[in-house]
Amino acid sequence: MNNTSEHYSTACSANDAQSAASLNATANPLVKAVRSVRWHVKELMGDNAYKKYVKHQRLHHPDKPVMGEREFWDHYWKDKEANPGSRCC
Description:
Blueprint: H1 2-45, H2 49-60, H3 69-82
């Protein structure tokens, strides 16, 4: 009896692993698509602007202090208002 339950347990584990691998293979393109859309929206909306600023400052101006996030966004939006460039509204 122990042998049968052990065999069943091993077979279920193998089936679970195959199902998980199959699910990952089919979900992977969907996950990639969702991540891609999320990245593009964040880029268009400017959500990554502070991270880019910090990375740029540390790489190109390591001797200068990095603004805090609140100060950065104040400057960012003041600049956008003063120099609107092309935008829809």
